[in-house]
């Protein structure tokens, strides 16, 4: 007679076990709250970082565009620099011994920096030597191109035809000579001027 009672007592064990086994479910729900909260936190952090990156990128783009000369403006500068370079190179190769002061003054008008200083610092002896050579030179740029340009500087290469008349021997026939130059220009008060002019050796080989 006692066996049934024992069976009934034993039969309650699965129920209790089931009740006990329910606690992990509730625990898993509770423990799941932390990962969800963590995911939300990191999502907010990621969104904040993304917004910061976007803002920083926008600010950099605005700064870059405000400090970079538009392509159309730079194109205008290229044209102006090329025109100025052609004129200035011709002036620097033009000399009339009958008006040395006028020739040097013209050089000074188109130069800046060290090149300008060189024209200003010509000594009386050097001026006299130019007079004694009795040369009249004229020049014409036959080809030129801008190879580098920024809003305030430019580099130009040019091919120039130089004609020299020697008044010491007026009957002498001197054919025009071709020279090549590289010129560095700087924009001074909105005007392009030569700051360096170098003759380039021509390889005839």
Describe the model:
This protein has 205 residues and is an alpha+beta fold. It folds into two domains: 1-68; 71-200, Nuclear Transport Factor 2, Chain: A, CATH 3.10.450. The chain has helices spanning 2-67, 71-92, 100-109, 113-120, 124-132; strands spanning 95-96, 135-149, 153-166, 177-188, 191-200. It has a five-stranded antiparallel sheet, sandwiched between helices. Strand 2 and strand 3 (153-166) form a beta hairpin.
Task: Provide keyphrases for this structure.
single chain; alpha+beta; 2 domains; elongated; disordered N terminus
In short:
The chain is of the alpha+beta class. It has helices spanning 2-67, 71-92, 100-109, 113-120, 124-132; strands at residues 95-96, 135-149, 153-166, 177-188, 191-200.
CATH C-level of the largest domain: Alpha Beta
Question: What is the element string, with H for helices and E for strands?
Answer: HHEHHHEEEE
Count of helix runs: 5
Cα gyration radius (Å): 43 Å
Overall helicity: 55-70%
Q: Mean pLDDT across all residues, rounded?
A: 78
Global geometry: elongated
CATH-defined topology of the largest domain:
Nuclear Transport Factor 2, Chain: A
What structural class do the secondary elements suggest? alpha+beta
Summed up, the domain count is 2
Largest sheet: 5 strands, antiparallel
How many strands in all?
A: 5
CATH architecture descriptor name of the largest domain: Roll
CATH homology-level superfamily of the largest domain: VirB8 protein
Which strand-content bin applies to the residues? 25-35%
| Assembly form of the protein | single chain
């Amino acid at each position: 007679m006692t066996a049934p009672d024992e069976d009934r007592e034993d039969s309650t064990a699965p129920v209790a076990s089931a009740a006990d086994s329910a606690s992990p479910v509730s625990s898993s729900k509770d423990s799941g709250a932390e990962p969800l909260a963590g995911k939300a936190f990191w999502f907010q952090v990621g969104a904040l970082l993304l917004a910061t990156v976007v803002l920083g990128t926008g600010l950099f783009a605005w700064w870059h565009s405000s400090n970079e000369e538009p392509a159309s403006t730079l194109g205008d500068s290229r044209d102006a620099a090329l025109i100025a370079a052609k004129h200035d190179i011709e002036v620097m190769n033009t000399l009339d011994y009958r008006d040395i002061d006028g020739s040097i003054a013209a050089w000074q008008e188109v130069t800046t920096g060290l090149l300008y200083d060189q024209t200003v610092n010509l000594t009386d002896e050097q001026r006299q030597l130019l007079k004694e050579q009795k040369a009249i030179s004229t020049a014409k740029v036959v080809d030129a191109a801008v190879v580098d340009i920024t809003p305030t500087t430019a580099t130009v290469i040019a091919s120039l035809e130089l004609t020299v008349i020697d008044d010491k021997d007026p009957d002498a026939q001197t054919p025009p000579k071709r020279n090549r130059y590289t010129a560095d220009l700087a924009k001074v008060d909105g005007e392009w001027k030569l700051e360096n002019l170098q003759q380039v050796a021509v390889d005839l080989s």
